[in-house]
Design brief:
Layout (H helix, E strand, L loop, with lengths): L7 H11 L6 E12 L11 E15 L4 E6 L7 E4 L13 H14 L6 E7 L9 H16 L6 H11 L10 H8 L4 E6 L4 E6 L4 E7 L9 H26 L9 H8 L2 H11 L2 H25 L3 H17 L6 H12 L4 E4 L7 E7 L3 H16 L9 E4 L6 E4 L2
Parallel strand pairs: 3-5
Antiparallel strand pairs: 1-2, 1-12, 2-5, 3-4, 6-7, 8-10, 8-11, 9-10
Helix pairs in contact: 2-3, 2-4, 3-4, 3-5, 4-5, 6-9, 8-9, 9-10, 11-12
The structure holds 2-acetamido-2-deoxy-1-O-phosphono-alpha-D-galactopyranose.
The site of 2-acetamido-2-deoxy-1-O-phosphono-alpha-D-galactopyranose has 18 residues, from helix 3 and helix 5.
Length: about 400
């Protein structure tokens, strides 16, 4: 067999499901950690994610009709088959095949004459872990379909299209994950700006280390976490409307209709928090305070990253976690514990990453302190819980990786 960048077990799975001839394309689509800027992308505020070297991997063979057949190596993900069109009826809510349909339907609406494909896929990303396995799948499928049809693609328009497309699955998500997955540059994190989408690579200093630690509970965005997530998007809108009304009345107009970004362009975050406290209370005040202070932390974190100032960067990460825990209320006891252990073990900062409500934490540490952090997480969190599978599935270092790619096989 000629050498292939795809693992042999994926080739075997493809042959078992679909027989000869061999697949023609291999797609690799990365997950991400979000360094900072959590739950603000859907408010059109900038975020700072980094693609990592764990991927959804797809072997693809073009078809001469409009069928899409797909098999996953992951346990519990049954094969799926449907016909490509601009109106694809969804599977029941929570079915993994809806991520496949989301990408295919969106592209079928945009491009005439697309034909289907057969594909086998696997993933080196933990599922429902806040590492964006869902968008890695959506972008991976989009590239499989485009590649199978010999179409070219550009990261920005593809990411914009797929951010909208993924809402087919029922989550009213922002566009961070699709953007970093499609547009990441190796060795860098990216500042992602929205409306219009822009991706600006920011180099990651070579002696910074990012520790990813799974809380061992899933952030099931196709289940209860989806309702919480969607409710937060509504709460953010309500809080914004009330503050805009107030600012309009007090003569600070110009911000009406321009959203959180407009507010932050006119007022420093600290002042906005004070204004918010006059017109909001309870949950809405808390959500508002998280959004505006998190946006401010993103700007400062980008400056710290560019200046290789790991101490300031770490402080901002830890402050972000406190805000997500207390004001946005999307942490969990296990995530708080992971963050606490990492900080006590010498990480300069730590926080939950992604949507929260389970999933992973990240910690940042200088290279010379990282072994201590890994060791304490292992002994204090994982050893007592004895999770199934190798420890490296739950606790690992993340390096800044490049974006999704399509490779032709010989
Ligand atoms: P994850 O962690 O992949 O569930 C979700 C959203 C992001 C962003 C983060 C919170 C999707 C596909 N992803 O990510 O847009 O809002 O939560 O910052 O909805």
């Amino acid at each position: 067999m000629p050498t292939s960048p795809a693992p042999p077990e994926l080739h075997s799975a493809f042959a078992t499901h679909f027989g000869a001839p061999a697949p023609a394309l291999f797609v690799r689509s990365p997950g991400r950690i979000n360094l900072i800027g959590e739950h603000i992308d859907y408010n059109n505020l900038s975020v700072l994610p980094m693609a990592i070297g764990r991927h959804v991997r797809v072997l693809v063979r073009p078809r001469t009709d409009t069928k899409v057949r797909i098999a996953s190596l992951a346990h519990g993900f049954e094969p799926r088959e449907f016909v490509l069109s601009g109106e694809i009826p969804p599977y029941p809510v929570g079915d993994w095949g809806n991520y496949v349909k989301a990408a295919v339907q969106a592209l079928a609406r945009e491009h005439d004459g697309l034909l289907g494909f057969d594909a086998a896929l696997d993933s080196t990303l933990p599922v429902a872990a806040g590492l964006s396995s869902s968008s890695a799948l959506v972008i991976g499928i989009a590239l499989a379909l485009l590649g199978a049809n010999g179409r070219t693609w550009n990261p920005i328009p593809l990411a914009e299209m797929m951010a909208k497309a993924e809402r087919y699955t029922g989550t009213q998500g922002g566009g961070m994950d699709q953007a970093i997955c499609a547009g990441a540059v190796e060795g860098t994190a990216s500042r992602v700006d929205f409306a219009p989408l822009r991706i600006t690579p920011v180099p990651v200093p070579s002696d910074w280390r990012f520790v990813v630690a799974h809380s061992l509970s899933r952030a099931e965005k196709s289940g209860g976490a989806q309702q919480t997530y969607n409710r937060r998007t509504v709460e953010c809108r309500e809080a914004l409307e009330r503050v805009e009304e107030r600012i309009g009345r007090s003569g600070r107009s110009g911000s009406r209709g321009t959203g959180y970004r407009g507010l932050l362009a006119e007022c420093p975050a600290a002042e906005l928090v004070e204004i918010g406290a006059e017109v909001l209370d309870g949950d809405l005040l808390k959500r508002f305070r998280h959004v505006v202070t998190e946006a401010d932390r993103v700007s400062r974190a980008e400056v710290a990253l560019r200046a290789s100032d790991v101490a300031t960067f770490g402080e901002l990460l830890s402050a972000s976690h406190v805000s997500l825990r207390d004001d946005y209320e999307v942490s969990s006891p296990a995530l708080d514990e992971l963050v606490g252990i990492a900080e006590r073990a010498g990480a300069v900062g730590a926080r939950l990453t992604g949507a929260g409500m389970g999933g992973c934490s990240i910690a940042v540490a200088p290279a010379n302190a990282v072994e201590g952090v890994l060791d304490r997480l292992r002994t204090e969190f994982y050893v007592p819980r004895a999770p199934e599978g190798p420890l490296g599935d739950h606790l690992f270092l993340a390096d800044p990786a490049g974006g999704a790619r399509v490779m032709q096989l010989d």
